[in-house]
Amino acid sequence: MQSFTSGGQRIEVEWFAASGGSAAGGGTGTNGPAVLLLHGADGLTYAEGYRLAARTISASGYHVAFPHYLDRTQDRRVAYSRLRQDFPLWATTVRDGVSWLASQPGVEAGKLGIVGVSLGAALAFEVAASDARVKAIVDYFGPFPEGLAARQPRLPPTLILHGALDPVVPVAQAHAIERLLKQQGTPYEIRIYPGQGHGLTGTTQFDSAARVASFLGQHLGPDQA
């Protein structure tokens, strides 16, 4: 287990080294792209699911860092009564995580992305809005942070994956993000899955994984500046 410090707190990080493809150098000793994987409000409740996602991404040739950002507030899962007050602290921690990731051996600092799930996606948008080091975002059914659209941030290329029947984060949130990206001429892809709720099940999991691999290859791959 690795770690970095944010706000005086030790933030644990699970590291998944790139294990396949040529995107991360293919064992040639060259630096390669890397992503932060940000869990949702469930924290580590379903950690094995996030670890499976990390291994899948790393198998495509990307270093993956899975930070336990709730360590900043010493929580195991989100306390909804404190969500608004804690959100800026977690965003700062994710920003510190980007700095940590950029400094890791074998990581090409100019090719960093964030894969965020639900709350993790909201944090990805919040951080990328003011941190140009983030070159790509994968948004798994995340909400748009409150007030962010009004600030008209320049976001990086974004892949939006959302369930049409999501009862937790309405699909309208996905379309709001799409509108901003379209207005600004930012490259994006969107896939709304019919019949899916807050989370993807069955064959949609395989479809989304394939889309993530393709998207990251386009925006963080070896031929990208």
UniProtKB/TrEMBL annotation:
Top-level taxon of the source organism: Bacteria
Pfam families per record: DLH
Protein name: Dienelactone hydrolase domain-containing protein
Recorded GO MF terms: hydrolase activity
PANTHER family: ALPHA_BETA-HYDROLASES SUPERFAMILY PROTEIN, CARBOXYMETHYLENEBUTENOLIDASE-RELATED
Record organism: Methylobacterium oxalidis
Dienelactone hydrolase domain: residues covered: 30-204
